[in-house]
Specification:
This protein has 263 residues and is α+β, with helices and mostly antiparallel strands. It has helices at residues 2-25, 38-45; strands at residues 68-72, 89-97, 100-105, 111-113, 164-165, 170-173, 175-177, 202-207, 234-240, 248-254, 257-261. Helices cover 12% and strands 22% of the residues.
């Protein structure tokens, strides 16, 4: 009887230890038994779970994209020294996603930085802002590169308006959302929230070229008088995540250019 009693005590102790061991490993090893089972651990790691995490967005990565577009005039590659100041003449930078207009350059974010390219032989100046504001060929209102399409740009009766000639410098800006549904390039104001620029998006750069001349039968037809020279000028497009720092080049382009693919 004493042997049986001792055996019973030993078996009972073994059972207790076994149960204690099970509870100690639940959740840490994915054991499917016990209270607070492995299903709790799986729920925490599940991106679609509503228990513990509370929402799918808690564990689902959201692409941040780029925040800045930079246009580099680089006139040394294509100096337009016979007709106007060197460098591209920028009107609009627009962002499209899935073929839909998302936003344009956000007012208040356009900044200009002078370049250091060789002087243009005709004007004897390095970049457009050194011409002086009294010179109509300065076109140094960088704000004109933000917002939607400027519908009056060049007439025979007055100096050019509505765009910025960037010379050898750069223009940096953010993209702002259109604040009205169904906005077009003429009505999008870019005054909404900052829009991240994602891989696969497309940028359109409206550079004042022949497509602006009356009779060109384009979306910008007639914004400039037929007498406008409107030379297509060269520039390079960059995107980045921090102000003042370019990250990825989207290539060199000439004149108005659509569907520049973001990498």
């Amino acid at each position: 009887m004493k042997v049986i009693k001792n055996l019973s005590v030993a078996l009972g102790l073994a059972s207790v230890l076994a149960m204690g061991g099970c509870d100690a490993t639940v959740g840490g090893t994915g054991d499917a038994t016990g209270d607070g089972t492995a299903s709790d651990a799986v729920v925490v790691a599940d991106a679609g779970a509503t228990t513990d995490t509370g929402a799918t967005s808690d564990t689902t990565a959201v692409p941040t994209g780029y925040l800045f577009v930079t246009i580099d005039g680089a006139p040394e590659k294509n100096p337009d020294c016979t007709t106007s100041s060197a460098g591209a003449d920028l009107d609009v930078i627009a962002l499209y996603r899935g073929g839909k207009l998302i936003g344009v350059g956000k007012p208040g974010t356009c900044t200009y930085k002078a370049g250091a390219a060789p002087k243009c032989a005709k004007w004897g100046k390095t970049d457009q802002c050194s011409f002086g504001t009294a010179d109509p060929k300065c076109h140094n209102n960088v704000a004109d590169a933000c917002g939607g399409l400027n519908t009056v740009m060049y007439t025979d009766a007055k100096p050019d308006v509505g765009y910025v000639g960037i010379g050898s410098g750069t223009v940096e800006l953010k993209i702002g959302a259109c604040t009205t549904a169904g906005a077009t390039i003429k009505t999008c104001d870019g005054a909404g929230a900052d829009v991240p620029i994602l891989a696969g998006d497309e940028l359109d750069v409206y550079e004042v070229d022949g497509s602006y001349k009356a009779g060109s039968k384009t979306s910008t037809d007639g914004i400039a008088a037929a007498s406008c020279v409107c030379t297509a000028e060269q520039y390079e497009v960059w995107v980045g995540k921090e102000a003042g720092k370019v990250l990825v080049s989207l290539g060199t382009h000439t004149g108005s250019k659509s569907q520049i693919k973001v990498q």
